[in-house]
Amino acid sequence: MSAVLKSVPEFVPMRPEDVDAVLAVEQGAYPFPWSRANFVDSLVAGYSAWCCRVDGALVGYAVIMLVLDEAHLLNVTVAPDWQRRGYGTLIMHHLFSTARAHGARRMFLEVRPSNLSGQGLYDRFGFGKIGRRRAYYPAIEGREDAVVMAVDL
Ligand SMILES: CC(C)(COP(=O)(O)OP(=O)(O)OC[C@H]1O[C@@H](n2cnc3c(N)ncnc32)[C@H](O)[C@@H]1OP(=O)(O)O)[C@@H](O)C(=O)NCCC(=O)NCCS
User: Fold this and answer.
1) Residue numbers annotated as active site
2) In the predicted model, is pLDDT for residue 5 greater than 70?
3) Ligand 1: distance of its center to the CA of 101 in Å?
4) Position 140 in a domain
5) Closest ligand 1 atom, residue 84 Cα
6) Count of domains observed in the chain
7) DSSP letter at 14?
8) Domain-located, residue 103
9) CATH for 76
């Protein structure tokens, strides 16, 4: 009899020693990536930061800020080679259960109007548009607005 072993993604809290690998993925995933200081500051601030690993490989990560009954999704990223295989969905499920376990009742985020993959993922989780921040992000030419989205948890 042969057994087929399927790798199960595991979620582990992001540690300072993960930041080099996280930053390498970040720089490959975004035209305007977070800086090392953004990740270090998030860890120092005690934000809920997670690495998603498959057989030890860093597949993705996420950072959320939990304040009272609100969760703010600050970063969710799947490494380019691992995208479109369901890991973003798994990470979002993990973030929803983490946020609920901390008593959050609503989750907020900002996304670029040009980011179709992000918006596709957020639509799937029931996020609705609640506002727009003008010229929020740096862009190739000038600045780009942010769409503000929220969902009840
Ligand atoms: C957004 C992101 C996290 C999605 O991760 P993923 O592992 O590819 O997502 P999944 O495979 O779970 O896909 C979930 C849904 O997201 C949407 N989606 C994902 N990639 C997409 C793409 N390239 N174009 C349009 N929709 C996309 C689809 O609705 C998809 O469902 P489907 O495959 O059934 O059509 C990933 O594309 C990423 O890291 N992008 C770069 C960083 C980023 O933009 N993060 C969001 C910042 S706001």
Assistant:
1) 110, 122
2) no
3) 25
4) no
5) 11
6) 1
7) -
8) yes
9) 3.40.630.30
